[in-house]
Amino acid sequence: MQLLKLSTKVHRSETFAEFATEFALNEHDLVLTNDFLYQPFMKALNLPCHFVMQEKYGVGEPSDEMMNNILRDLKGVTFNRVIAVGGGTVIDIAKLFVLKDLKDVMDAFDHKIPLIKEKQLVIIPTTCGTGSEVTNISIAEIKSRHTKMGLADDAIVADDAVIIQNFLRACPSASMLRLLLMR
């Protein structure tokens, strides 16, 4: 019995600049992130990527409204690779943006379109949590239905996950996590 299937390649970089060089970020990349990460780590690099700041579309958990508003603003933007830099909201949104013919995220959640991966997905987590950077699951609040839905399909698995040391330095160490869990 197979216990673990990991198709995502896992990489490590010290800094975002090192990652940007190694992955040759360019004008065909969509980077979904947050302004609090963009300003100190990405802005000075003057990368030709198309940057989208998630918080411009709302706060909290990802929602169908948030994702569809981003999709609407991306209409006409050409990109071959989606790079998610952030926590769960950014990651869950980015996973859907690799799908072919995605115009409304509800079409994916309701399986009205075939779930075909069209773009490469690179995920850079900035929190320690569920390991979403290597799973095939995206969860969103579906505001129109007053519920949450999950989408689980290998089409939304990241091609690459990158652990960037300076993003994770602020996370609690293993010993600190043990203390927090014992409370």
Structure report:
It contains 7 helices and 8 strands; from the N terminus they run βαβαβαβααββββαα. The termini are far apart. It has helices at 16-22, 35-41, 64-74, 88-96, 105-109, 165-168, 174-182; strands at residues 9-13, 29-33, 50-53, 81-86, 120-125, 137-142, 147-152, 160-164. A hairpin with a 4-residue loop joins strand 6 (137-142) and strand 7. With 183 residues, it is an alpha/beta fold. The longest helix has 11 residues, at 64-74. Helix content is 28%, strand content 23%.
Architecture blueprint of SSEs:
Elements lengths: L8 E5 L2 H7 L6 E5 L1 H7 L8 E4 L10 H11 L6 E6 L1 H9 L8 H5 L10 E6 L11 E6 L4 E6 L7 E5 H4 L5 H9 L1
Parallel strand pairs: 1-8, 2-3, 2-4, 4-5, 5-8
Antiparallel strand pairs: 6-7
